[in-house]
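Page 42, continued from yesterday. The earlier attempt failed because a stray header line got pasted into the input along with the sequence. Redoing it now with the clean sequence only.
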Amino acid sequence: MSSYGRQWIEALRGRLAELIALISFALVAKSNWKQKWERGRGALISDPVLLDKFEQIVKAEAKRWQRVKEGTPDATSTTSPSGRYFIG
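This time it went through. Structure tokens are written below.
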């Protein structure tokens, strides 16, 4: 494997680890949330820390998706195909 290939894989691993950690945080926050969840909107409105974490999740997902798209020949889009970020 080329050094570029190894670097690409390591960067992707790092992005995935960051995304998994942030999603784990969101799941714990959801399990401890006592008010109305409203697909996550209630928590985001009530707690600025959660809003910051949500922004980090979106950015981490975008970076991960961009890294994956860079590894494909038709790397034209950097947006996620799902468009879903709320943990419902």
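Notes: Confidence is low (pLDDT under 50) at residues 73-81.
Reminder to self: strip header lines before submitting.
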